[in-house]
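ZP: hey, is the magnesium ion complex queued? I don't see it on the tracker
AM: it wasn't, my bad. submitting now with these inputs:
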Amino acid sequence: MAEETRNEDTEQTDLDEDIAMALVNHVINTPDDSGETDPRTKYPSEKFEPQTQDYPGWTEAMNPRPDHGEQSYVGHHRMMGMRTLITGGDSGIGRAVAIAYAREGADVAFTYLPEEEQDAEQTVQLIEDAGSRALALPGDLQDEEFCQEVIAQTVAEFDGLNVLVNNAGFQMATSEGIEDLTSEQFDRTFKTNVYALFWLTKAALPHMKPGAAIINTSSIQGYHPSPSLIDYAATKAAINSMTFSLAESLGPKGIRVNAVAPGPVWTPLQPPTQPAEKIERFGQDTPLGRAGQPAELAATYVLLATEESSYISGSVIGVTGGKHLA
Ligand code: NAD
Ligand code: MG
């Protein structure tokens, strides 16, 4: 019996590796002789298998496995010695940013929910494989004290903080719009997406010097709200607004504040929080005709963290597959 289980596990691992390699090979299938890469075919654009997961979702259970740049991101020493903190860094966009920051030479602390331990362990490994220090901080960002502890522990471990990436987020689609949106959910979405950003930023500021950067993860939903994501979209509009006001107030201190607004990106956030039929066609309504992969977000977070963007503050940069933000 034990033998059988082991064989099944091995088969599953082989299968997972095949899926991962299929995705990687797709990435390698670029560029053409002219050095150009067709953005429509850089990743698969066919329908996804119908799939769901319990919240919060895990990387290993996704089919296909998202690409976080494990095989493709090449660092160029742009963040040597920087101390960074990424909320929700265990998976999805946060993991892609963690890989990129570590390969650029930064130490990376990140938060995650306790039930995401498996994803967190893989992210730690990826950061350490890049030769950087990793600090994994499990807990619930809806709690102000935890947010304060996260900053205190990062500063204590790394002896400072240069870049804060407010990336963790909660969404849950409601089928009938406001009729089945509960006060409990409304509260959770605002606590996770907006209050945590406020608490973390406030706690981080005393440790940030001129040259430091804050990067918030917004969404195209902040501009084009879906009726099934009323609460979530409102938090993303609030994040845009706070990005603008914080950039105004922190500019005179030499601290830049920006946001990245992703379109549909293939991460563990989606299968547990959207109807299965939406997951099948996820991203196909973009001009590029496919969902984005977390790896395609990383370069923008690197740009906004480094001196190369020294005159960019108060901006929201869209990474949307062609959908406009305005
Ligand atoms: P993800 O599920 O991989 O990451 C979100 C993370 O948020 C989780 O891993 C979890 O650790 C964290 N989180 C959620 N609730 C938390 C809580 N109460 N306490 C602590 N941590 C908590 O998914 P992702 O898509 O990479 O999401 C990252 C950000 O990107 C989110 O802000 C999301 O709103 C935003 N975004 C995603 C998409 C998309 O299509 N995937 C599109 C636009 C914006
Ligand atoms: Mg996760």
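AM: back. Residues 56-57, 88, 90-94, 111-113, 116, 140-142, 167-171, 192, 217, 219, 262, 264-265, 267-270 surround nicotinamide-adenine-dinucleotide (ligand 1) (CB under 6 Å).
ZP: great, adding it to the tracker
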